[in-house]
């Protein structure tokens, strides 16, 4: 590991820098990545953001989104950029498996690797770490990194502020999760003062649905929602065949699990969806219920206590049955 003084020395001169984040990036992943990008270009660095995969259309409006390279679409260019990089910022993930094939390119790179993240149990591939599991989001940590660690608060311009506000807003559930602190509200106030238009950002992210997405949501709630009252649990499970009539795109299933969690008395909600490559599972919980424990123990995943995810190579029907079979193990917690 290197110390902060060494990193600041490295950043004192223009460098070739790559920023990358986890596959199928969400609002925090892209908000923190482009927030850091918009800061670094002001300092004269040569910067590219590489996403391992595509990401939701409702994030494409973020400032300088056009500069993002998608690995699955431009593999050779991505590899060349990584090979030439002097520093690689790894944001919103702490294990190289989270960036798919790009992970081995990063692992083999001689570049200095900087991890900024808020997830549990870092893998240890990094040379410098700004890590806090109590942070609301990686975007919050990017703000802290720029303002407090680097002492560059004057570079939080409108573009940086807009991106970081987006990341904080989305990962904090619009400021309603338990890790939202008074200090976070002060950060958000600073971002608004710097030019982030909170009303416009909310509109771009949450009021930007396609007709198909709304019809699909209606289908899920009417036909695929199960309330398992004996365990204070709600489940929405969607097969590949269910997806086809709605032409569901990347990111359009995001947030559906929260509708299940919003039911009175529900402590655990699950959204299980059959994708072409794997069956994906998203869990949300309230209070002290450890959603991340279920994902880590049974579904090759992890995350935060109240928001976690996993995946399985087993059949859709098997995964749904497996999830239901696990609930008796947690009955005491779910009914407490």
Care to describe what's here?
By secondary structure, the protein is an alpha/beta fold. It folds into two domains: about 5-205, inorganic pyrophosphatase (n-terminal core); about 210-335, Diaminopimelate Epimerase, Chain A, domain 1, CATH 3.10.310. It has helices spanning about 5-10, 25-40, 75-85, 100-110, 140-150, 160-170, 180-195, 200-205, 210-225, 240-245, 255-260, 290-300, 315-325, 330-335, and strands spanning about 15-20, 45-50, 70, 85-90, 110-115, 130, 225-230, 235-240, 270-275, 280-285, 300-305, 305-310. α4 (about 100-110) links the parallel β4 and β5 (about 110-115). α5 crosses α6. The longest helix has 14 residues, at about 25-40. The protein is globular and about 60 Å long.
Helix fraction bin? 25-40%
Q: What's the main sheet like?
A: 6 strands, parallel
Structural class: alpha/beta
Give me the side-by-side strand order of the main sheet: 3-2-1-4-5-6
Q: What is the CATH homologous superfamily assignment of the largest domain?
A: inorganic pyrophosphatase (n-terminal core)
Radius of gyration using CA atoms only? 20 Å
Overall pLDDT confidence: 96
Q: DSSP strand (E) fraction?
A: 15-25%
CATH topology of the largest domain: inorganic pyrophosphatase (n-terminal core)
H-E order: HEHEEHEHEEHHHHHEEHHEEHEEHH
Proper CATH architecture of the largest domain: Alpha-Beta Complex
Principal-axes geometry comes out as: globular
């Amino acid at each position: 590991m290197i110390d902060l003084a060494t990193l600041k020395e490295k950043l004192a001169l223009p460098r070739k820098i790559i920023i990358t984040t986890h596959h199928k990036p969400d609002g925090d992943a892209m908000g923190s990545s482009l927030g850091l990008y918009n800061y670094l270009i002001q300092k004269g660095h040569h910067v590219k953001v590489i996403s391992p995969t595509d990401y939701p259309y409702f994030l494409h409006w973020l400032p300088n989104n056009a500069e993002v390279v998608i690995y699955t679409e431009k593999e050779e260019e991505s590899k060349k950029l990584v090979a030439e990089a002097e520093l690689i910022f790894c944001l919103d993930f702490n294990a190289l498996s989270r960036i798919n094939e790009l992970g081995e390119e990063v692992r083999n790179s001689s570049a200095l690797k900087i991890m900024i993240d808020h997830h549990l149990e870092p893998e240890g591939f990094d040379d410098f770490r700004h890590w806090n599991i109590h942070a609301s989001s990686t975007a919050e940590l990017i703000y802290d990194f720029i303002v407090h660690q680097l002492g560059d608060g004057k570079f939080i311009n409108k573009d940086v502020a807009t991106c970081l506000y987006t990341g904080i807003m989305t990962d904090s559930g619009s400021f309603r999760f338990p890790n939202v602190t008074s200090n976070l509200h002060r950060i958000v106030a600073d971002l608004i003062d710097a030019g982030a238009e909170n009303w416009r950002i909310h509109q771009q992210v949450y009021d930007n649905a396609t007709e198909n997405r709304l019809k699909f949501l209606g289908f899920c709630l009417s036909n695929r929602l199960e309330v398992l009252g004996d365990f204070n649990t709600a489940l929405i499970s969607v097969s590949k065949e269910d997806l086809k009539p709605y032409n569901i795109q990347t990111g359009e299933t995001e947030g559906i699990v929260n509708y299940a969690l919003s039911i009175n008395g529900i402590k655990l909600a699950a959204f299980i969806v059959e994708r072409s490559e794997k069956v994906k599972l998203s869990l949300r919980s309230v209070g002290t219920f450890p959603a991340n424990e279920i994902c880590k123990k049974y579904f090759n995943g992890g995350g935060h206590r109240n928001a976690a995810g996993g995946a399985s190579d087993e059949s859709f029907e098997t995964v749904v049955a497996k999830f239901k079979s696990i609930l008796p193990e947690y009955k005491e917690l779910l009914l407490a």
